[in-house]
Structures are given as structure tokens and as C-alpha cells.
């Protein structure tokens, strides 16, 4: 997998992703300490609101900002958003009110909602070979998991020699390093030559996404993975501290088990996807993830908590299956749009997938708080089951359907390319294919 780093431009962009993730990890720790300074025992409510602001920015702003920057040079957009994020990080040590925190977090996440889809849409244009792109997706998944494991440890070491305000400076340096690495990479500009109204640029990605069967299935798979992932992220601390009566180090071990499983799956997925179709891999992983989650919840209801070692094993397998559902997403997005539409489709995936998290986070948290842990597990498993069934119904295969274009003139380039109005080819939703053909 590491051979992909021999590609100079991808290696620089991957390094930019890594240093930005490290900065984001430091920000997460520093933000928690800042919230406690400002709000004391109400820090949890402050953080909860801040994360809600983050999700609202992701869901509501990403299509709009994506449309605003669609015709701008990608490298300028990426560097500009890193500079904005760096500026916000440098402002955070000087805030005096909770309202200022919310405002700065909204600005930072608005920049991230522009940066991330643009960055993700750039990689398939740099790595045109699907095998290389698959390895890049797996490497990106590993980077996210390593950040979750290593950033808290790095923050802890830094806090031995500085106040938490220094972590914000470290965050700024992370975004600065990302900007410098992006500046050194050669990034192709693949904007559309067709002038489109602003409203169409805002909605085009979601229009393509929701009219493509495999992407509708992907959204349902995202919902199932988000349901289980939300339980892990929200309630692992409750299980470790309340159910097992263990300390903070045990929480780190539990999250490390989940992350290790996710990384292991990401490392083996490129080889698996060379032999099996994406749908089969994602469907099998989603079914197994659903069964494991429901079984865990029902066992807790009838027999009590699992033994600690068994729980860690379950969390590792959960992480592996979660990764297997989500990692192939980029391959589906790449396959479902022309190069000029990829930024819009990646933006749609960014917004819609975070909408899933916006729904599942409170369900997981309130379900465990006002019900029970086993009840929340069963609820999340039930959502995963319904989502998996819906995904399999929406995405029933990759058939190439014969179809006809009665509305196009005989001399239209698409008609001439395929030798007549009635023809067969792999379909992508675009100006010539406004809906997915079914019966021809």
C-alpha cells in the first residue's frame, strides 16, 4: 500500500491531510479544556452545542460553499481554507464568552466544509488508476484512525510543558503545514466548461447523487454505519466507566481496539476489492455489523455485560466492519460522475453523510441516557438493519441497461458517439441522462 506514496503529488496531499488531522486532534482536546474554563460543570453542554454547530455547518453550508468555489482554482481554494482555519485557531486562545466559541467554530467548520470535499474530489483526478485510488482510500482511512489514537497522546505530552492555549498554536501550525504541502503539489483543475446558474451549481451534486441507484444505496449504508459508529463514539466512555467501573486508561484501550480493527480492515480492503465487487463487500460488512450490534445489545439485556476482554474483541470487530462499509465510498463516487461533476458529488456525499450523523448522535446519546445501554445498542442495531435492507433494495446491481434518447437531435455528439438513439453503455447522471434508465 505504501508504494502509492511514490506518487509525488499524492504523497504531498496525503502529508497535508496527516498534519491537518494532527492539528484537528489537538484542537479537540484544547476545545474541551477551554469549554471547562468558560462554563465549568456545564462544559458538556457547551461542547455538545459546538459539535451540533459543526454538523449544521457541514450539512447546510457545504453545497453552497462548494458552488461558490466551483470555478476557482482548486489549489487556491484548499490553501485559502487552510489559512482561514489557521486564523480561527489563533483566535481561540483569546475568546472570553461561549458565544464567541460558537461563532469561531462555525467559521472553522464552514472552511472545513469547503476544504474536505474539494480535497477528496482532487485525489481521483491525480490517481486515475482505480487500484491506486483504492489504496489511497485505505491509506486515508488509516490516517483517520491513527489520528484518533495518537493525537490525544500528543496533546497529553504537550500539556506537560505548556498550557492548553498552546495546543491551539499547534493546531494553527498543522493547518499552515497543510497549506504549504498543498502549495507544493500539482493539482489539476477540472471545472466544467458549461456555465450554470448558481442554484443549479448548489443542487447539481445532490441531484446526481439521488438519481444514481448505487449512491442511494451508499447513503443507506452510511446511515447504518453512522448508527453503530455513533453508539461507539458517544457511549464507549459510559460503558467503560459505569458498566465496567474502569478508568481513563481503559477508555483509551477500548477506543484503540475500535481503531485497530478499522485500520486492519483498511489495510486488507484493497486486495479484497480487486476480487469482489464493492456492493458485495459493503453488504456483507453491513449485515455482519448489524448482527453483531443486535447480538451485543440482546446479550447485555439477558446476560449482562460481556467480559472485558470479549468486549474489546467485539469493539475491534465492530471497527473492522465499520471501516469495510465506509472505505469503498470514494470508488462509488468516482464511478458515478464525470470529472467535472466530481467536486459536486463529493460535496453531496459530505453533506448527506453528516446528516446521518446529525440524526444518530442524539439518538445514541439520549437512548442510553434516558433508556439503557443495551436498549440504545438494540435501537442502533435496528436502524442499521433497516438501513442495510434499504441499501440492498435501492442498489440492486450494476446492470448496463439499453436506453433511448428521443429528445436528442440526430447530430448530437452523444448519439453519434454511440451509433444511434437506442444504445447501451455505463450510465452516469448528466445533462444527457437526467434520470436513471430502467426499461429503455
TrEMBL record:
Membrane-topology annotation of the record: Multi-pass membrane protein
GO CC field: plasma membrane
Keywords linked to the UniProt accession: Cell membrane, Membrane, Transmembrane, Transmembrane helix
CDD domains for this protein: MFS_MefA_like
InterPro entries tied to this protein: MFS, MFS_trans_sf
Domain of life: Bacteria
Segments passing through the bilayer: 12-36, 42-64, 154-183, 218-238, 250-269, 281-300, 306-325, 346-367, 373-395
Localization of this protein: Cell membrane
Coiled-coil ranges from the UniProt annotation: none
MF terms (GO), sorted A to Z: transmembrane transporter activity
Keyword match Disulfide bond: no
Name used for this protein in its record: Predicted arabinose efflux permease, MFS family
Species: Shimia aestuarii
Source lineage: Bacteria, Pseudomonadati, Pseudomonadota, Alphaproteobacteria, Rhodobacterales
Amino acid at each position: 500500500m505504501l508504494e502509492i506514496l511514490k506518487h509525488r503529488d499524492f504523497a504531498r496531499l496525503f502529508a497535508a491531510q496527516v498534519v491537518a488531522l494532527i492539528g484537528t486532534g489537538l484542537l479537540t482536546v484544547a476545545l474541551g479544556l477551554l469549554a471547562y474554563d468558560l462554563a465549568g460543570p456545564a462544559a458538556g453542554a457547551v461542547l455538545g452545542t459546538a459539535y451540533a454547530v459543526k454538523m449544521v455547518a457541514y450539512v447546510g453550508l457545504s453545497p453552497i460553499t462548494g458552488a461558490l468555489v466551483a470555478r476557482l482554482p482548486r489549489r487556491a481554494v484548499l490553501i485559502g481554507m487552510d489559512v482561514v482555519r489557521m486564523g480561527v485557531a489563533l483566535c481561540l486562545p483569546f475568546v472570553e464568552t461561549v458565544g464567541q466559541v460558537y461563532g469561531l467554530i462555525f467559521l472553522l467548520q464552514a472552511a472545513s466544509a469547503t476544504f474536505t470535499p474539494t480535497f477528496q474530489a482532487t485525489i481521483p483526478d491525480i490517481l486515475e488508476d482505480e487500484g491506486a485510488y483504492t489504496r489511497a482510500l485505505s491509506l486515508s482511512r488509516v490516517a483517520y484512525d491513527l489520528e484518533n489514537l495518537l493525537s490525544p497522546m500528543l496533546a497529553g505530552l504537550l500539556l506537560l510543558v505548556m498550557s492548553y492555549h498552546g495546543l491551539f498554536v499547534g493546531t494553527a501550525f498543522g493547518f499552515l503545514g497543510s497549506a504549504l504541502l498543498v502549495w507544493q503539489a500539482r493539482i489539476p483543475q477540472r471545472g466544467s466548461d458549461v456555465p450554470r446558474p448558481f442554484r443549479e451549481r448548489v443542487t447539481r451534486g445532490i441531484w446526481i447523487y439521488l438519481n444514481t441507484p448505487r449512491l442511494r444505496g451508499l447513503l443507506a449504508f452510511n446511515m447504518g454505519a453512522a448508527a453503530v459508529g455513533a453508539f461507539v463514539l458517544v457511549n464507549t466512555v459510559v460503558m467503560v466507566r459505569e458498566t465496567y467501573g474502569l478508568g481513563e486508561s481503559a477508555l483509551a484501550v477500548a477506543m484503540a481496539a475500535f481503531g485497530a480493527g478499522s485500520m486492519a480492515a483498511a489495510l486488507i480492503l484493497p486486495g479484497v476489492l480487486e476480487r469482489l465487487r464493492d456492493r458485495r463487500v459493503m453488504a456483507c460488512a453491513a449485515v455482519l455489523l448489524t448482527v453483531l450490534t443486535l447480538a451485543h445489545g440482546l446479550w447485555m439485556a439477558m446476560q449482562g455485560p460481556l467480559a472485558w476482554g470479549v468486549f474489546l474483541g467485539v469493539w475491534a470487530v465492530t471497527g473492522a466492519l465499520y471501516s469495510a462499509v465506509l472505505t469503498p465510498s470514494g470508488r462509488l463516487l468516482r464511478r458515478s460522475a464525470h470529472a467535472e461533476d466530481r467536486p459536486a458529488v463529493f460535496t453531496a456525499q459530505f453533506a448527506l453523510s453528516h446528516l446521518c450523523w446529525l440524526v444518530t448522535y442524539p439518538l445514541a446519546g439520549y437512548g442510553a441516557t434516558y433508556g439503557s445501554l443495551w436498549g440504545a445498542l438494540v435501537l442502533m442495531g435496528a436502524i442499521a438493519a433497516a438501513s442495510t435492507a434499504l441499501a440492498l433494495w435501492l442498489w440492486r446491481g450494476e446492470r448496463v441497461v439499453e436506453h433511448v434518447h428521443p429528445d436528442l437531435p440526430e447530430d448530437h455528439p452523444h448519439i453519434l458517439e454511440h451509433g444511434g438513439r437506442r444504445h447501451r453503455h455505463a450510465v452516469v447522471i448528466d445533462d444527457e441522462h437526467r434520470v436513471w434508465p430502467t426499461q429503455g
